[in-house]
């Protein structure tokens, strides 16, 4: 008995139908798995975190353009990762390690950008000189950045002790490492300091160096609105200053001249006594010049180099 012979086209049609059914079943299984995956993800808590918007090398100065937001599983995020509303904590910092796009940006990945140097606070042509706090033996420990002080120098001259103003109205730039005015009284000097940095001109800096080597320096606090200079200085020992000197007073009088008839008038001594400069009262005398305020430049307008936080307000 002969077997029936199937048409070739019918066989190909059956194969195509079987392949279509297999593809449909595969697609149905994929869709079902995808639905189950989405349902599982919907049940997993997700949180938004700041990530790198693109690949960034180390040394990148971070701005808002470098940040992106990505949803990450709450159970997998790092404890020091940042929420989107905290992105400003990273803005302005420098990337310390390279990051790939999508990597969370953590605080440990960044370092703060270095601010402007302390020398930028100096005015044009000004200098900052640091001296040990022991050299200032009057207001040690009480100074704060922004104070104005007068510096007096005491030294020996011709076997006599002289104390005179050296610099007046000197701006205190820093006490130790503190360079800002404290927000609350006493904060700047709470930790103590061993040096004081002062604003000065190059000429005043030379005077201060010479005074430290040849005498002792004393500082007096000055009111920030006081623009007057003092010319007073003292000469002599302590007894002279107190007016209790036991030096004998000279009782010698000038010799009385004898007038002869044959003597020319031009040879006679003057009948009116010569004016004699009064002796200093208790050793106090005026300097032959008026000292200028060392930091008077702060009162001049248009000084962008000066730190406004350290600029005293001029009186109305």
UniProtKB/TrEMBL annotation:
<feature type="signal peptide">
    <location>
        <begin position="1"/>
        <end position="23"/>
    </location>
</feature>
<dbReference type="InterPro" id="IPR013974">
    <property type="entry name" value="SAF"/>
</dbReference>
<dbReference type="InterPro" id="IPR017592">
    <property type="entry name" value="Pilus_assmbl_Flp-typ_CpaB"/>
</dbReference>
<dbReference type="Pfam" id="PF08666">
    <property type="entry name" value="SAF"/>
</dbReference>
<dbReference type="Pfam" id="PF16976">
    <property type="entry name" value="RcpC"/>
</dbReference>
<dbReference type="InterPro" id="IPR031571">
    <property type="entry name" value="RcpC_dom"/>
</dbReference>
<feature type="domain" description="SAF">
    <location>
        <begin position="47"/>
        <end position="111"/>
    </location>
</feature>
<keyword id="KW-0732">Signal</keyword>
<protein>
    <submittedName>
        <fullName>Pilus assembly protein CpaB</fullName>
    </submittedName>
</protein>
């Amino acid at each position: 008995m002969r077997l029936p012979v199937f048409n070739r086209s019918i066989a190909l049609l059956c194969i195509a139908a079987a392949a279509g059914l297999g593809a449909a079943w595969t697609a149905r299984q994929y869709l079902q798995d995808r639905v189950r995956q989405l349902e599982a993800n919907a049940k997993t808590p997700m949180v938004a975190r700041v990530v790198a918007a693109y690949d960034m090398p180390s040394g990148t100065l971070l701005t808002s353009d470098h940040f992106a937001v990505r949803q990450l599983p709450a159970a997998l995020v790092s404890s020091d990762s940042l929420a989107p509303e905290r992105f400003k904590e990273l803005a302005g910092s420098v990337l310390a390690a390279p990051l790939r796009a999508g990597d969370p940006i953590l605080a440990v990945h960044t370092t703060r950008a270095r601010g402007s140097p302390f020398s930028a606070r100096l005015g044009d042509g000004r200098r900052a000189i640091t001296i040990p706090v022991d050299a200032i033996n009057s207001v040690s420990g009480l100074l704060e950045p922004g104070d104005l002080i007068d510096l007096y120098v005491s030294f020996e001259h011709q076997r006599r002790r002289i104390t005179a103003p050296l610099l007046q109205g000197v701006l205190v730039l820093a006490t130790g490492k503190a360079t800002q005015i404290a927000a609350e009284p006493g904060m700047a000097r709470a930790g103590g300091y061993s040096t004081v940095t002062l604003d000065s001109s190059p000429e005043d800096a030379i005077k201060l160096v010479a005074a430290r080597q040849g005498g002792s320096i004393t500082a007096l606090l000055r009111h920030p609105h006081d623009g007057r200079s003092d010319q007073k200085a003292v000469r002599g020992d302590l007894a002279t200053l107190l007016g209790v000197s036991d030096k004998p007073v000279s009782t010698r009088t000038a010799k009385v001249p004898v007038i002869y008839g044959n003597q020319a008038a031009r040879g006679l001594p003057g009948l009116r006594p010569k004016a004699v400069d009064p002796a200093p009262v208790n050793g106090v005398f005026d300097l032959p010049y008026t000292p200028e305020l060392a930091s008077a430049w702060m009162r001049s307008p248009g000084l962008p180099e000066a730190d406004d936080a350290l600029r005293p307000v001029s009186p109305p």
